[in-house]
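Hey, resending since the last one bounced:
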Amino acid sequence: MGDSGRRRLGYVGSALAGCLLLAACAGAGGGAAGPDGSPTATPGAPSSSKEAPLLPQESELPSALPRDVQPSDVIPSTGRADLADAAEQLAEDTYGQKRPRPVQVAAGSTRWQVGSLYRGTFADPDIVEHRGRFYAYGTNTAGMHMPALTSTDLARWQPLTRGGGRADALPRVGSWVTKPSPGRGLWAPAVAEVGGGWTAAYSAKASTLKGGERHNCIGLSRGSSPTGPFEVVGRPICSPNANLGLIDPDIFVADDGTPYLLWKFSGVKAKRPAGLFIRQLNATGTDFEPGAKTRELLRKEHAWEGRTIENPSMIQFRGVTYLFYSGNSWKTSNYATGYAICDGPEGPCVRPKNGHQFLSTARTGNLGPGGASAFDDDNSLRLLYHAWDPGKVLQLRRLHVAGLWQREDGTLRLVHPG
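The structure tokens again:
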């Protein structure tokens, strides 16, 4: 494992990385590809027999934090709030973490209108910050492959424009995409600054399997700025024998500048469960790094996760690597967000607090909070996520911005649900 994940843990759990490393399982990234793992194509160069399989063989993953790493919220409920507030103020004064201000996304139109605030459908959001402006990217809506919003304060969001008119951040998709008409079939995009430019990844349907199930792949594209337009590069990333393929990409750039691609593997019925995986990208974000291996980070484990986990989002915040993810059915208010703490980008990753939900309908007051993207807002850790509007499940998913607090042991507390 490189320096990107363990070079600085500071006061927030100086022993955490070592403890997690000891809990790692053997064989996390090796082995020949089985019937559920062989890729037909990767971006860029033709596939090689010497290339590591897209998916490693299934092996045991750690499922709990070591016993000597205890969460800090075991304080009795009496006086807990006062003590927590005092501890947070001390940490802010001493270590620079900022308590996130509450953010409520402003009212706006449910229609995509240039120059107007937008408060309509915007699912599976990803977010980047560049030169004082935030850019959010979502699942296809308003007739666009990759709709994008911009904001300077996280509260007021307007549609991206180009030349005074509406702009699709990804105007053209790979030729492998089935029915690549605008506004259909693309979802859960991810964007990051990589190698002097910007890489965008997206999920799309590549074919239909017997029985009518869609088979999904991930495509990569490049642009000169976070506004795009992003142009397709390479070939799709596919796993042909997975029932539903690969979806929900996340592009993560570690503190040392190393880029990675994360994704959800949809599993193989009766053979292998859904899981979250990661693999290093090359320096330009257009292909996997030669010699890189895929690592499995998490798989479905807890009852609240239902039948699947998805939507990985990785971030390093003040020396700790976090992996956020969604669980359960996105079509219901049972959809929720959990997180794991990792010993660097390639894991191992384990869920703290017995793997309980972190964002849920009950905790946030928002229905089915999921599809979250983690980001650092000037030393405040936040999540941009979607949730169903009351009475509009399966009709309207809007943006929300949550504020988090990092405890001394590296675990997290929800400060404002947004």
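The two ends are 36 Å apart (CA to CA).

Sorry for the duplicate.
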